Amino acid sequence: MKTQVLIIGGGPSGLMLSRILSQAGISSVILERQSRDHVLSRIRAGVLEQQAVDLLESTGLGTRMQAEGFVHHGIELAWEGHRHRVDFGDRPVMVYGQTEVTKDLYDGSDADAVTILHEVSNIELDLNGPGASFSQGGQRHEITCELIAGCDGYHGVSRRAIPADRIKLFERIYPFGWLGVLSETPPVAEELIYANHPRGFALASMRNAMLSRYYIQVPASEDPADWSDDAFWDELRRRLPAEAAESLVTGPSIEKSAAPLRSFVAEPMQYGPLYLCGDAAHIVPPTGAKGLNLAMSDVQYLAEGIIAAQSGDRSGLEHYSTRALARVWKAVRFSWWFTTTMHRFPDQSDFDQRMQESELAVLSESAAARKVLVENYSGLPL
Ligand code: FAD
Ligand code: DHB
After folding, report:
1. Rounded-to-integer distance, Cα 194 and Cα 214, Å
2. Which of 28, 185, 264, 277 is the most buried (most CB within 10 A)?
């Protein structure tokens, strides 16, 4: 088998890259470890920056998002009996689930007749060929290409194909995780509520008028099976502002999952013909809603580089890693700051506690401080 760009991983990064390339007349093949149904069933991100919205639109996949997504003009911060709405002004975000983005991207790849090989295992990258060998349906296959895009998430094989002495890894593991619940109930508020509470952080989010997404901070090792729906709702109620807790409508969870929180960056994001995109190269704690958005900006930079290289200009590919990392590190900083400001750490001292309260007080009193939050939450320029 032969293609121009071999894409490892058919999540949002891989699917979006193949869509942009296909529209530029560049062939790609996607190798995905899971089944299509499995990829489509993962409930993850919910907030899109304008750059991700623009990218979906410019690739002709924005119709359903425009009809079914919700434009949000602010978020609420809650702490110690205070509630403060942060107004986004002219920098709104789009609430549209990653599951829907992935579905739109799959519909696009069906229309483009892109080859996506599912349930592929034992991928071995050949960075000299370049190409890869892999197993599917009990048989071993080989594929050659001009360039490999590693879009296979944090646990994928691509990043690990880079020799250890040619990559530097930066990591912070937070001593807690998030337990998330999806329920067919009306959202507790019109906008997202981020709550700092002595019992731990809570987030009230949504997908649509009858689909709510809630998260609570839990210990890192928590098993969602240990949480009954009632236990989750009781804990969420304790952490939300009182008026919100009173009006919370509960119901059976249709999904419940736990995610550890970490910050992680691999530098550089390129080695030879292999280019890393999205979670394969970096992870941010979800508090700032940045992961999917960073994946989309990486893809945009890489696609621009690949397209320009077709007509002999390789500068975009040469500068891909530097360009992507400049945006990544700022999002890592914002996600770290927002996580640190909103969560209870097991070893939090009284001093740390006052710092959090002061940080939130500054946000509520200073338009300049809010402006910095909005710039980052709504998305830094490409
Ligand atoms: P992935 O989505 O991880 O896709 C990688 C793909 O590669 C997967 O389909 C996987 O099956 C496949 N794969 C893995 N290994 C292999 C292999 N060996 N061979 C072949 N294929 C392989 N981001 C936001 O922007 N906003 C949010 O609000 C937000 N909220 C989040 C909430 C939670 C609870 C979580 C967990 C994440 C959240 N994120 C959010 C992050 C966001 O979901 C990720 O950043 C995004 O999925 C990254 O996309 P990706 O395509 O790079 O990686
Ligand atoms: C959602 C997830 C986030 O991490 C976030 O910051 C906001 C919303 C969500 O899943 O809706």
Report:
1. 10
2. 277
Query: pLDDT above 90 covers what percent of the chain?
Result: 99
From 12, 72, 197, 343, the catalytic residue: 72
Cβ-Cβ contacts under 8 Å for 130 (sequence gap 6 or more) = 6, 144, 145, 146, 147, 148, 272, 273, 274
Please, which pLDDT band fits residue 217 given cuts at 50, 70 and 90? very high
Query: 130 C-alpha vs ligand 2 centroid, how far in Å?
Result: 37
CA of 238 to the centre of ligand 1 (A): 30
Q: Which CATH code is given to the segment(s) 174-260+344-378?
A: 3.30.9.10
Binding site membership of 275 for ligand 1 (Cβ less than 6 Å):
no
Cα(317)–Cα(235) distance, rounded to whole angstroms? 48
C-alpha 11 – ligand 1 centre gap (Å): 6
Name the band, by pLDDT with cuts 50, 70 and 90, for residue 328.
very high
pLDDT band at 231 (very low <50, low <70, confident <90, very high): very high
ipTM of the complex: 0.96
Q: Are 181 and 211 in contact (CB under 8 A)?
A: no
CATH of 5-71+93-171+262-341, one of 3.50.50.60, 3.40.50.300, 3.40.50.150, 3.40.30.10: 3.50.50.60
